Amino acid sequence: MDTVALAVTDGMLHFELSVAYEIFGSAPDAVTTPWYRLSVCGPAPVRVGRFLLEPDHGLDRLRYADTVIVPGWADVDVDPPADLVDAVRAAHEAGARVASLCTGAFVLAAAGLLDGRRATTHWAHTDLLTDRHPRVSVDPDVLYVDNGSVLTSAGKAAALDLCLHLVRLDHGSSIANTVARRLVVPPHRDGGQAQFVTTPLPARTDHPLAALFPWVLERLDHPLSVEDLARQARMSSRNLGRHFRSVAGTTPLRWLQTQRIRRAQELLETTDDTVDAIASATGMGTAATLRRHFNRAVGVPPDSYRRTFRSPAGRL
User: Fold this and answer.
1) How would DSSP label each residue in 226-273?
2) Which residues pair with residue 53 across a beta bridge?
3) Is residue 7 a contact partner of residue 42, using CB atoms and an 8 Å limit?
4) Which helix (H) or strand (E) segment is 37 a member of?
5) Where are the alpha helices (DSSP H) in the chain?
6) Rounded to an integer, what distance in angstroms lies between the CA atom of residue 258 and that of residue 26?
7) In whole angstroms, what is the distance from residue 139 CA to residue 34 CA?
8) Quick check: helix, strand or coil at residue 297?
9) What is the tens place of the pLDDT at every residue in 248-289?
10) Closest CA to 162 of 23, 62, 5, 28
11) CA angle 160, 161, 164 (to 5 degrees)
12) How many angstroms separate the Cα of 56 from the Cα of each of 11, 72, 108?
């Protein structure tokens, strides 16, 4: 996988493009093995945000690359250019490994490369990707997905994770760690790790659960049950479940668990409270229970989350 081509056109996100160029464009000083031969392919010139980019080759050269990287697509409400979609599809058909960064997944989906495959993109756009491409199995809760010849990543920092994952596949963990040290980023975050997003309350307020949601959020430290929620909403547990699926897209217990995890994230970011205290404040009971559910939902233990996402306003 020694030749890497960046597929660019007007409307790409410059951060993701720069990440790929930095990682694949030059080897760290400590690396003596042959590095990637990187080229930028696209119509000339290309407007990327406030920058004007001169590609090395046209999009037709993508088919000769071992790996094709598609950076983020800025306006997901607009279909990506047909020439870009056709070139990416042709590259994959020619045997290239194709990886998208962030919303570059919309380009891969338009090319049909994600049909019948699991994929991800920035969490803010996963619903749109699902609606527009129903044959794609969109996973909003991971950093990246590796399907072998087709890979997709979530947003921004996850683009770094996927690029380092490719380096690890091609050159091994030691060299990938060397690249990570040069970039001053964590050497490895597993693709299955969550995107560190929280599930917000539904935007609508004209539904039967509108008064229930704030009532629950004020009592997260209580051992609430589905029956407690149904009683407060003045409906049967069955009706409660039906309304939850309609309004929140999930079950009452899953929604409640998500809110507890969300509150735990906030406390970990902004307070010095112990994990035991946070477990009590979020209705988890014990630190062991919190750690188990938090790790399952977020992908890392509470202590690791606190170190990574500590708010500057929090006390040190």
Assistant:
1) HHHHHHHHTS-HHHHHHHHHHHTSS-HHHHHHHHHHHHHHHHHHH---
2) 46
3) yes
4) strand 37-41
5) 14-25, 82-93, 105-110, 126-132, 157-171, 173-183, 212-217, 226-233, 237-247, 252-270, 275-281, 287-298, 302-309
6) 42
7) 35
8) helix
9) 777 888 889 888 988 898 898 888 999 999 999 999 999 999
10) 23
11) 85
12) 18, 19, 22
Half-sphere exposure of residue 75, counting CA atoms within 13 Å on the CB side?
10
User: pTM for the full model?
Assistant: 0.67
Closest CA to 244 of 169, 94, 127, 233: 233
Contact 41, 74 (CB under 8 A): no
H helices, E strands: number in the chain: 13, 10
**pLDDT tens by residue, 69-119:** 999 988 999 999 999 999 999 999 999 999 999 999 999 999 999 999 999
At residue 313 the predicted structure's pLDDT band, cuts being 50, 70 and 90, is: very low
Q: Between the CA of residue 136 and those of 116, 119, 128, what are the distances in Å?
A: 6, 7, 11
Residues 226, 252 contacting (CB under 8 angstroms):
yes
Does residue 315 register a pLDDT over 50?
no
CB 198 within 8 A of CB 221: no
Sign of CA dihedral 189, 289, 235, 217: negative
Contact 130, 138 (CB under 8 A): yes
Tokens of 19: 């990440």
- For the stretch 162-166, contacts whose Cβ atoms lie closer than 8 Å and that sit 24 or more positions apart, written own/partner, are 162/99, 162/101, 162/191, 163/19, 163/20, 163/23, 163/24, 163/69, 163/101, 164/23, 164/188, 165/191, 166/1, 166/67, 166/99
CA atoms within 13 A on the CB side of 64: 10
> Would you place residue 186 in the very low, low, confident or very high pLDDT band (cuts 50, 70, 90)?
low
Residue found by looking up tokens 């990327």 in the block: 48
